[in-house]
Design goal:
The protein has 374 residues and is of the alpha+beta class. The chain has four domains: 85 residues, conserved putative lor/sdh protein from methanococcus maripaludis s2 fold, CATH 2.40.420; 87 residues, Beta Barrel (Elongation Factor Tu (Ef-tu), domain 3), CATH 2.40.30.170; 68 residues, RNA polymerase II/Efflux pump adaptor protein, barrel-sandwich hybrid domain (OB fold (Dihydrolipoamide Acetyltransferase, E2P), Beta Barrel); 83 residues, no CATH class. The protein has a six-stranded antiparallel barrel with strand order 3-12-15-14-13-16. Strand 13 and strand 14 form a beta hairpin. Helix 2 packs antiparallel against helix 3 and helix 2 runs antiparallel to helix 5. The protein is rod-shaped, with a radius of gyration of 46 Å. The relative contact order is 0.19.
Amino acid sequence: MRNIILTIIGILLIAGSFFVAKKLIDSKTKPKPVANKIIKTVFTDTVKNSTINIVIQANGSLVAKRRVELYAEVQGIFKSGSKLFKPGQEYSKGEALIRIDAAEYYASVQSAKSNLYNSIAAIMPDIRLDFPEMHQKWQGYLNTFDLNKTTPKLPEITSDKENYFITGRGIISNYYDVKNQEQRLAKYNITAPFSGILTEALVTEGSLIRSGQKLGEFIDPSVYEMEVALSKAYASLLKVGESVTLSNLEHTESYTGKVSRVNGSIDATTQTITAFIEVSNDNLKEGMYLEANLDAKDEPNAIEISRNLMLDNDQIFVVRDSILDVIDVKPVFYSESKVVLKNVPDGTVILDKPVVGAYSGMLVQPFVDTKNKQ
């Protein structure tokens, strides 16, 4: 009996110790961890509105303002001249570019001129008898007629009788036939319409040239044009005569041009407007790729910031009492990397560089350059 009582007392003591220990453990309060406030350092700038010069950037390749594609209108053998017909060859205005052998055709022209002379000479006796008042002018025409020169213009017909008489003898039709052949004979020689340089040569001396065949290209290297396509939003900003700064892709050389023409219609497919920039420089070559900066207009009371700082719905971040906030702005011009804004009050502190994960209400502190401050 005694052993049973002792066993029961031991069990009760163990159970009581367990509950006391659990109560003591549960009664201990764990201290809550305090979250560290993270304050990001940001680069800021203070707004000061000013007049912003809006510059439209565009690019394109140069094309000679005056260029001629040379085509043959007659057939014959290409005769060699004083200069080789090769790319890079320079020619002065009026100098022969191509001479085509016209000996055979020249003979037929001379034959037609001779027939005209003979036709007029044959009617001179009738003119002396029937129209004595006209004899002197027609005799003077024959005296000035030279087979080795261009056929002179026929004397002026002053009466219906004279007109019927001359026309009935076929003089007028023969005259215009000769003039037509003389015009065609002139096409055997192609001369330079202006001083320039040959950029393409598709034939060589001694080769057979066919009618309609392309012979080459000839340009004036003193003046070039660059065609650029700009958004239709800038159509009202473009003005003929505006100065344009041009530079090569390496930005090692710059040139000054001007807007020479602006297309009056907008491309329906791309919704762009075409402008032409004229530029002259001895270092320029056709086909060179240049970048252009067109001074469009001056925008007063505006600022210019990086496009990376723009938020959706035309907003930007500002700093107020070390807290990020957003304000509405009015963008008036977008370039490739910048945006011009209005409606930003002077003295407003804005972000100068984007902040990853930024949000309205975020704690920040402006960066202070201690080196410059000292």
